[in-house]
Design goal:
By secondary structure, the protein is α/β, with parallel strands linked by helices. The chain is built from 13 helices and 12 strands. The structure holds pyridoxal-5'-phosphate.
Length: about 400
């Protein structure tokens, strides 16, 4: 429990910080779900979600978290026994693949480890051996929230197209939508899934599936399809209630409306991407300086493969856990736990911590966060290079 009052900074990689305006948007009486005003607001939200995703095609909204749209995307696209290729760069794509397996699909995984992005050469080699086109889809995450790797989705898409392989490309952008550049149509992504609680600054509870005509065609008449997840009814509703297969998640929608106003109609999407880029650079500058000496390491070494929304940091166990406890109790800062990085020596990933830097954040918050981490390192006696805060402030000052 914190002994230091003042506004607490929750820097876990989701749920992310809710803007006060989003919290206030939730605090109102229930609307009439038959009021045309609500339907109008939802149509505006769908239009705006497509803009954030970079698509002119289809968007469906579900009352669920990210795991829900893992399942929903699969049931709309596949038959039992269909083969998918999972590109693993942490725990999240394999998690999606695990759902496919549980649904009776044939899952093959290419594992790129925990410190590197997908290697397109390896992917190409595997796809070119698939002469009979048995692989129906490639499943990958843009950002893996456990390792903080960022995959080059455009390069993956180009690789698949370069050999005319017909596999669908399905991308999990749950940790990156509204943070990282992503242009669904331009990059030929067929299916993209996301949730409300990370870059979109809205409480957990809404899941999104974006899909194009090719995916819609591929999914026609598949035998895994179930009524609740069926995207046809959601993009082609005869009645308003069919958009959500039941009662609309009214207050989640009020929250999302406000968040999308901020992202698209006030700050602007490209500026939102830019802000995340600058903040990520400031964090990297600090950690690259700290790690010049001693025990600290950024999990992803190559800057081009580092996420702009989350960073995974490696220390000596159990310093990740001790640092988290110290900043929470003494600095009003909650950092993310190490996730899925366990080894035989450190099965619970206590040597790791993560910083969520997605959504409603600005340089002031991040410089405070880095200062609090520095104080925690000092308290714990973590060996490190000096000049990190100067390095971070330099990045900020140059913008
Ligand atoms: C958070 C996350 C999920 C899971 O989302 P839940 O809302 O916790 O079910 C899936 N994939 C990625 C990349 C995530 O970051």
């Amino acid at each position: 429990m914190t002994r230091f009052f003042g506004r607490h900074h929750i820097a876990i990689p989701g749920p992310s910080i809710l803007p006060d305006r989003v919290i206030q948007a939730i605090g109102r009486a229930s609307p009439d779900i038959y009021d045309p005003e609500l339907a109008e607001m939802v149509h505006g939200i769908i239009k705006d979600l497509k803009t954030v995703a970079g698509t002119k095609e289809y968007a469906s909204i579900y009352i669920c978290n990210g795991h829900g749209v893992w399942e929903g995307s699969l049931t709309n696209l596949f038959n039992k026994g269909d083969k998918v290729l999972v590109l693993a760069t942490g725990i999240f794509a394999p998690g999606w693949g695990g759902f496919a397996e549980a649904l009776g699909m044939d899952v093959e995984t290419l594992d790129f480890g925990k410190r590197n992005p997908v290697d397109t050469e390896t992917l190409l080699e595997r796809l070119s051996r698939d002469k009979k086109h048995e692989i129906k889809a490639v499943l990958v995450v843009q950002v893996d929230t456990s390792t903080s790797v960022r995959n080059d989705i455009h390069a993956i898409s180009k690789a698949i197209k370069s050999i005319d392989h017909p596999a669908l490309l399905a991308v999990d952008c749950i940790a990156s939508l509204g943070c990282e550049n992503f242009y669904m149509d331009e990059w030929n992504v067929d299916v993209m899934i996301a949730g409300s609680q990370k870059g979109l600054m809205t409480p957990p509870g809404l899941g999104f599936i974006f899909f194009n005509e090719r995916a819609r065609e591929a999914g026609k008449n598949v035998n895994l399809r179930t009524p609740y997840w069926d995207w046809e009814r959601r993009v082609n509703p005869e009645e308003f209630y069919q958009l959500f297969c039941g009662t609309a998640p009214t207050h989640q929608l009020f929250a999302l409306r406000e968040a999308l106003n901020m992202i698209l109609h006030e700050e602007g999407l490209e500026q939102v991407f830019r802000r995340h880029g600058i903040i990520a650079e400031a964090i990297w500058a600090a950690f690259d300086t700290w790690s010049s000496k001693g025990q600290i390491e950024m999990n992803i070494r190559d800057k081009h493969s580092r996420s702009h929304s989350v960073s995974t940091i490696k220390l000596l166990p159990p310093n990740g856990t001790l640092l988290r406890k110290w900043t929470r109790d003494h600095a009003g800062l909650t950092l993310g736990i190490g996730l899925g990085m366990g080894t035989n020596d450190d099965p619970k990933s206590t040597g790791y911590f993560r910083i969520g830097h997605m959504g409603h954040i600005n340089p002031n918050m991040i410089l405070g966060l880095l200062g609090s981490i520095e104080a925690g390192f000092e308290h714990l006696g973590v060996a490190r290079g000096t000049g990190s805060l100067e390095a971070a402030t330099k990045v900020i000052s140059q913008t």
